[in-house]
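ingest -> validate -> predict -> emit
validate: passed (alphabet ok, no gaps, 261 aa)
predict: started
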Amino acid sequence: MKEVKITKRAHEEIRKLFSSRTLINTLRTDPELTEAVDNFAFDDTLAAADGSVLEKTRVMCILASTIGCNAIKEFRQYVDACLNVGVKPREIREIVYQAYPYLGISQVVEYNLLMNDIFENNGIRLPLDNQNSVNDEEEAYKTGKELIDSTFGEGTVDNMIATSPKGQEHIVKYLVSYCYGKFYSRRGIDLQHRELITFCFLAAMGGCDSQLLTHTKGCKNLNISKSEMVAAATAILPWIGFPRTLNAISAINEAYNEKVM
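emit:
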């Protein structure tokens, strides 16, 4: 089917990323919409981010955003896209696993099962190699505390516990041992990518402005540049929309001490 008025770059990008074209827009039923959306998503926004992030990182960010905004059909497409640009199955799995503490079991389990189906259909043998790095609850808490303090500043965990209202300290401890100790500590992708993936989750979810700012600052503390952050936000824009992207840009500007939009 001929894609009329689709730019050369958009056409090439679509063919490179996707084994089969089954996005929600099709030329046959919505040609003018397809033209606008495809040219924006696969040409305009890519041109704005050229040179700031690697293709693999960009596609991983989009994959994370599809989970964050609960777009399971697009998730299916971007697992395929990740495999087509050389993202390793274990890296894809780590993105999905990391979504559990941020989006919860009820949403993420469907993505996990779909990911496994896609892997098996591509001849990827399951289960994948174990990437766990802690052996018990005590080690999980210790490791999580070290990761948080190294990212957000020495004493961060102790301060969070000390300032928690009485009877709510356990929530902080869960954050330390479960989110960081059991997920952030996993091998498979590095800490910079984990923090960037979390940024994409939160930007896509919306309504998490405080946490979004915190993790934007975490990205800065892990030496991710402002231009890389803006490129990541630009990459996920077509999938999460302008309001949530503008919130992400505001968090970037605030974290990097520049004018807030």
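The chain has a mean pLDDT of 93.
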